[in-house]
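Re: export button greyed out
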Amino acid sequence: DTEVTQTPKHLVMGMTNKKSLKCEQHMGHRAMYWYKQKAKKPPELMFVYSYEKLSINESVPSRFSPECPNSSLLNLHLHALQPEDSALYLCASSQGFTGPEKLFFGSGTQLSVL
Amino acid sequence: DQQVKQNSPSLSVQEGRISILNCDYTNSMFDYFLWYKKYPAEGPTFLISISSIKDKNEDGRFTVFLNKSAKHLSLHIVPSQPGDSAVYFCAASEGGANSKLTFGKGITLSVRP
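Workaround output, generated via the alternate export path:
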């Protein structure tokens, strides 16, 4: 199983809603990532979890709240988002987070904030 | 300031010919480079990588060349096939303490039958 599974695939939410994005992998990877990608732009790193601990927060606004309940699951809780937060949110995993690593990506959640 | 640059937004080649996708970087601390391919509505999938201790890595139809002095790498696909039509991202990391990847903007490759 070399898959990273993300749900939902599409999400439309209002600025006052609370929603969550979910990501799951069963490859035994110990590092998991959230990336954000706007149209015609490169993926931008948001958060990295290594061994279920938050290792990197790329100065992401607090309206995005990550959670890593266990080594296979990664959530991104969304609250009071802005229309400019509309983007493709990609989850990824890798074996570890030290040294060069190959990342495996999910298909993403296309988020629209109205 | 973009540390990984893919200056050509698109490339169109004939099926069976060679596709050459270029990537430049500015951070001299980068020592591991990867190429990812992305189809619409899918996440990026890993294609090939190269460490800075090498100048070439080959995997089937895909070869990546690294020129450290020029801070330049290229992906060669030969022969190109229509199924190769996708967006290709170059990515780099400093290795060391963490594996944070920095991506380029991507190149859209179209392979004409």
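Chain B has a mean pLDDT of 93. The button fix ships in the next patch.
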